[in-house]
UniProtKB/TrEMBL annotation:
Alphabetic keyword roster: FAD, Flavoprotein, Oxidoreductase
Protein name: GMC family oxidoreductase
Domain named Glucose-methanol-choline oxidoreductase N-terminal: residues: 118-293
Keyword Transit peptide: no
InterPro entries in the record: FAD/NAD-bd_sf (IPR036188), GMC_OxRdtase_N (IPR000172), GMC_OxRtase_C (IPR007867), P2Ox-like (IPR051473)
A Pfam family recorded for this sequence: GMC_oxred_N
Species annotation: Paenibacillus sedimenti
Cofactor(s) named in the record: FAD
Coiled coil region boundaries: none
Segments passing through the bilayer: none
Entry's Gene Ontology molecular function annotations: flavin adenine dinucleotide binding; oxidoreductase activity, acting on CH-OH group of donors
Similarity comment: family membership: Belongs to the GMC oxidoreductase family.
Length: 497
């Protein structure tokens, strides 16, 4: 008889703890027990970039880093990466009043202002167009072009910015050629924040469109940090000109006091000045110099026969130049700029969407301020906004409109007309989602809220790293610059730790 060998039963695997969600969270009660070296408020573009840089650079240090978010967990990645989302469901999710608060309804000067509260902020839904600012704009910023380019390089790398998304698309290539021949010599495919690498050798690349969640993912795999959601900062705590922490409330309106010797506000260009003003932070420029882009939209139609069988996708940026104080973006065909599981129908005519962004002057009188008579559910005064376009802004709006008409002629996509009028309109203020400048950096506290590293004048250890710190931004989309500057602010904080 042969002898059978039955090996011993494998020992049970010891439990390693459980994860309730797709990202580790720390209860706010626990965070209250820690003395942080850096505490970040807000998890959108600016906040996640500060977190990433600190985690990258402080891998082996014992420094304690915390980050809090007013909203809840919503999506583990950019909405466009989710297989169940299409254009229609994307809009329905983005505009859900549970996360998107249309505060502009109570603000006549800025009627399209919307706040979005969720882990990842507006980067969960942004379009990813990521140009650098024009050199004439950067030359007025309080840092050298060389240094800005250094941080642009880092930001573009971590965000995967490239022009590859539309490369090889006949519709983009034909129209870029028409534009260049027609005088728009700088027209090119979008610089887009997309990861187009192939999934290979076990390394997954399913996270195509960039969002703050990519920076959270990198950070998590570098070192530990504490993250709390549903934790709304209501006040900065400061003593003798130094930041010492933040008062935070949970949805039950219970207060918690988080201690930190460096506090970074990345709550967005409307919430950040709100909390600084409510905290009694003094500064002539806080809340002022609110800047956005005048935003014009139009639609035109191309002849399908002008393009080859393999049409591809249309994404063209006509950037600001010395002569042209605006930027135009072309999207198409129709709504098929991105799609995953649906089959785009064969179309006889191809619709192009024109989006024009005009420079808006940075003026003191355009401001966000507290309305002492109306408080939100957390007891913080609600914001009001004074905003108007200057005569110069209006001239530029006229030039954007002319520019769109000219582009439509050059690319042979006549603008659609409705009731005999061109379908070309100026979107209500705030619709561009590019609001910025409300805590802008400057060499001088007279016309800036922070120094060139984002540290608030007069309060050591209190920083701003989001769209509100941007100086005048010209006509380019802001987020790449915000992320580049947030990385720089993190570097500066590290020199002090
Ligand atoms: C549909 C859409 C398309 C866009 N397309 C582009 C584009 O193509 N290119 C481009 O450059 N930009 C684009 N943008 C704009 C871009 O999303 C913003 O510029 C960028 O997200 C701003 O970063 P931020 O850090 O200032 O704010 P946000 O990303 O909005 O992050 C702010 C975070 O702070 C949190 N928060 C607010 N108040 C508090 C508080 N009191 N306590 C704690 N947390 C708080 C919020 O919940 C949020 O998570 C687009 C935006 C939208 C909505």
């Amino acid at each position: 008889m042969s002898r059978l060998y039955i090996p011993p039963t494998c020992p049970p695997t010891p439990p390693t703890g459980y994860l309730d969600q797709w990202i580790p969270l720390t209860p706010i009660e626990e965070m209250e027990k820690t003395d942080y070296d850096v505490l970040i408020i807000g998890t959108g573009a600016g906040g996640s970039a500060v977190l990433w840089r600190l985690c990258e650079q402080l891998v082996a240090s014992g420094k304690r880093i915390g980050i809090i978010e007013a909203g809840d967990l919503l999506l583990p990645m950019h909405a466009q990466n989710l297989p169940t989302i299409n254009v229609e469901r994307y809009v329905q999710l983005f505009t859900n009043p549970k996360i998107s608060i249309p505060i502009g309804k109570g603000i006549p000067d800025f009627p399209a202002a919307t706040l979005l509260y969720a882990l990842g902020g507006r980067t969960l839904f942004w379009s990813g167009v990521s140009p650098r600012m024009h050199p004439s704009v950067l030359s007025k910023w309080p840092l050298s072009l060389k240094e800005m380019n250094y941080y642009y390089n880092i930001a573009e790398e971590v965000m995967n910015v490239s022009r590859d998304y539309t490369k090889g698309s006949s519709i983009t290539e034909v129209l870029v050629n028409r534009l260049r021949r027609g005088g728009f010599i700088e027209a090119a495919g979008f610089p887009l924040a997309v990861d187009l690498a192939q999934t290979k050798y076990g390394r997954i690349h399913s996270n195509v469109f960039f969002s703050a969640m990519d920076l959270f993912a990198y950070s998590l795999n570098r070192r530990s940090f504490d993250l709390a959601v549903n934790a709304r900062a209501v006040k900065v705590l400061h003593e003798n000109g130094k930041a010492v922490g933040v008062e935070v409330m949970n949805p039950d309106k219970k207060s918690f006091f988080l201690k930190s010797r460096n506090v970074v506000f990345s709550a967005g260009a409307l919430d950040t000045p709100q909390i600084l003003l409510h905290s009694g932070i003094q500064g002539r420029a806080i809340g002022h110099y609110l800047t956005n882009h005048s935003f014009l939209m139009a639609h035109g139609v191309l002849d399908r026969a002008d393009f080859s069988e393999l049409l591809g996708t249309l994404g063209i940026l006509i950037p600001q130049t010395n002569e042209q104080p605006f930027q135009i973006q072309l999207y198409g065909p129709g709504v098929d700029f991105w799609y995953s599981y649906e089959e785009p129908p064969l179309r006889k005519e191809l619709e192009v969407r024109f989006e024009g962004f005009g420079i808006v002057e940075s003026r003191f009188e355009n401001q966000v301020y507290l309305n002492p008579n109306i408080r939100d559910e957390y007891g913080v005064p609600k914001i009001q906004i004074d905003f108007s376009y200057s005569e110069k802004d209006k001239e530029i709006i006229d030039r954007v409109a002319q520019g769109i008409k000219q582009v439509s002629e050059v690319i042979k996509a006549p603008l659609i007309t409705r009731n005999g009028q061109y379908d070309l309109c100026l979107m209500p203020a705030g619709q561009d989602n590019h609001v910025s400048g409300t805590c802008r950096m400057s060499l001088d506290s007279y016309d800036g809220a922070t120094n060139p590293y984002g540290e608030v004048f007069g309060v050591t250890g209190l920083f701003v790293a989001d769209n509100s710190m941007l100086p005048p931004m010209g006509a380019s989309n802001p987020t790449l610059s915000t992320i580049a500057l947030a990385i720089r602010t993190a570097d500066y904080i590290m020199t002090k730790l």
